[in-house]
Design brief:
heterodimer; A: alpha/beta; B: alpha/beta; 17 helices; 47% helix
């Protein structure tokens, strides 16, 4: 079986390196993009098992990227983990409502990211869709309640 | 009971400061010897014979960092009381970070000076409340503290106790070389000390399966390990440390020939403090006991450093290594306070 392919999207090169290497260590094949627009081009072309994306990025931010992926039916085909800066919980909730499967707030333990991605990659497509809907529903109610946490 | 008079060396300052001092020191009679300036050639000799040294910093005299350095070089910092001429946070942080026993601001009452002398003579530490307040007053320079550096260093030690005391030892070695090599750089000792102590703090973010793996690392594991300078920079950056701290953390694995990591900087593009640190790091690695090999003797390690001048290390710094660590003054160096 070929290794899973994951795209790491962050405008900070250090974060791409740190996340990318920890995923490679877990046996994942990794490609990188520095902004949402470049990521969208990549994700439209190849076959991807997952995407780890920052939310605050130049050119196209993560929430916009998620909207495009959702509109084009690409979210159902892959696992999406979002990274958000501390202090922006509402953005993280919105990302989950838009279809992300999981969220990690920076700073995160570099070793933890691979665990989250691998667990999600291990789900079959039906379980993954269920997870996505559950997360979106929980995030939606939290956001309506104005709870500033995930 | 101690009956011998307490001998106090008074450096700088004017008569009004020490007239009447005797009555303020409660424990015993006081004998005051005065010295015009800390830069006087006989300061170290005079200080060595005294119970307590009082150094009055003045605007006109030498800068506070040179004075603090002279006190440490003389090895009398624990029994020295510094009277600062203003409330600069930098001076206070440098003095206390260097292990100075007592610290007061100009304008402190003779009574409090007497109290400070008493306390320091008894082996204690005295920080005048107004001086303590400036350390807490937030961000004049940055608000960073040595205690935060020590706490972070201890956190790493708990995760990676394999290197047992490496951070403390390498800090001591690197400060010795920095003293000789970076005299013009005007980097306060205390900032360098924080930088050296924190160099590997990013290892907190390295998975333990790699950090304490007994065997050799695979290629990918090695590259994950090599992200620790970036992780360290991210851990420390919210603390507002001076630039040299971030520079040492990020660049302590760069090599003079540009084959290091993470940024493959070469030559003088590598910050000076990081170049100094790289040499000390290598010295400590060679001379301490590791599972996979025997420690090398100190002179052999120094010789080994010199063979790597111009490849791994800055050749100008390598030229100073021998005199710093093996020369006649090599014993007269500071120890990091416990």
């Amino acid at each position: 079986m070929p290794p899973p392919r994951v795209l790491v999207v962050d405008d900070e090169a250090d974060i791409r390196t740190i996340v990318g290497l920890n995923l490679r260590l877990a046996g994942v094949e990794v490609a990188e993009a520095a902004d949402g627009a470049t990521a969208l081009d990549h994700l439209r072309e190849g076959t991807w098992d997952g995407c780890v994306m920052d939310l605050a990025m130049p050119i196209m931010d993560g929430l916009t990227l998620l909207r495009h992926l959702g509109a084009e039916g690409l979210l159902e085909k892959m696992t999406v983990v979002v990274l958000s800066a501390r202090g922006t919980p509402m953005d993280a909730l919105e990302a989950l409502e838009l279809g992300a499967h999981a969220h990690l707030s920076k700073p995160f333990a570099p070793g933890a990211i691979a665990g989250v991605v691998l667990e999600l990659l291990g789900l079959d497509p039906a379980q993954r869709e269920l997870r996505r809907h559950e997360m979106a529903a929980r995030a939606g109610s939290l956001r309506r309640l104005g709870v500033p946490t995930v | 009971m101690e009956t011998r008079a307490l001998r106090v060396l008074m450096v700088g300052g004017d008569r009004s400061l020490w007239v009447g001092l005797s009555s303020m020191v409660s424990s015993r009679s006081v004998e005051v010897v005065t010295l015009g300036s800390i830069t006087a050639p006989d300061f170290a000799t005079a200080a060595a014979e005294m119970d307590v040294v009082v150094v009055v910093l003045s605007r006109a005299d030498t800068d506070p960092f040179t004075a603090i350095r002279a006190i440490r070089d003389a090895g009398v910092h624990r029994r020295t009381v510094v009277v600062a001429h203003d409330d600069a946070q930098r001076t206070a942080a440098a003095a206390l970070g260097s292990g100075i026993g007592g610290y007061l601001l100009r304008g402190a009452t003779p009574e409090r000076l007497g109290h400070a002398i008493d306390t320091v003579a008894a082996g204690g530490a005295f920080l005048d409340p107004p001086a303590a307040a400036i350390l807490h007053r937030g961000n004049e320079q940055s608000g960073w503290t040595m205690s935060a550096a020590r706490a972070l260093s201890a956190a790493l030690e708990m995760k990676d106790s394999y290197t047992g005391g490496h951070a403390e030892r390498v800090t001591s070695l690197a400060l010795r070389l920095a003293r000789v090599a970076l005299l013009d750089a005007a980097l306060p000792d205390v900032a360098l000390e924080a930088a050296f102590l924190l160099h590997d703090v990013g290892k907190i973010g390295i998975p333990e399966s790699i950090l304490i793996k007994p065997g050799p690392l695979t290629e990918t594991e090695r590259r994950v390990m090599e992200t620790h300078p970036m992780l360290g920079e991210r851990i420390v950056s919210p603390l507002g440390y001076p630039a040299c701290v971030i520079e040492v953390i990020r660049h302590h694995h760069e090599r003079w020939d540009g084959r290091g990591y993470p940024d493959r900087l070469a030559g003088h593009d590598i910050p000076a403090a990081a170049r100094v640190f790289a040499i000390a790091d290598s010295l400590d690695a060679m001379t301490s006991l590791r599972a996979y090999r025997r420690p090398v003797s100190f002179p052999d390690a120094v010789a080994e450093i010199v063979t790597k001048a111009g490849t791994q290390f800055d050749p100008e710094l390598c030229a100073l290594v021998e005199q710093t660590f093996l020369g006649p003054t090599a014993g007269r160096v500071l120890q990091i306070p416990a």
